[in-house]
Amino acid sequence: MATWNDYKNHVRQTSPELGKDMDEVEALSQIVGAMIERRHELALSQRDLAALCGIPHSSVARIEAGKSTPNLGTLLKLFDQLGLTLRAAPVTVASAK
């Protein structure tokens, strides 16, 4: 396989359930990556961000390390303090041929 996308497409074809899990992990990774990048842009430590959100520092650390998935309320608190927004958009589904 030539690229990561080729591999993902192969996995989706051979195991749709595993492909779905892979997509979910990738989406969560993008969300957390955006949070970390923005926190660094704002020169905030994990402790600073946690204090602004009223949540434990350990929660921010676990989320950023990928050891914990935040619930929606926590995610919205974090995004609010980071000046980020969470958007929903329709998923384009490729037609099966």
Write the layout of secondary structure elements.
Blueprint: H1 4-14, H2 16-41, H3 46-53, H4 57-64, H5 72-82
Please describe what this structure looks like.
With 97 residues, this protein is mainly α. The chain has one domain: Orthogonal Bundle (434 Repressor (Amino-terminal Domain)). Helix content is 66%, strand content 0%. It contains five helices and no strands. The mean pLDDT is 90.
Supply the number of structural domains. Answer: 1
Provide the gyration radius in Å. Answer: 16 Å
General shape: elongated
Helix content: 55-70%
Question: What characteristics describe this protein?
Answer:
0% strand; mainly alpha; 434 Repressor (Amino-terminal Domain); 97 residues
Give a brief outline of the structure:
By secondary structure, the chain is an all-alpha fold.
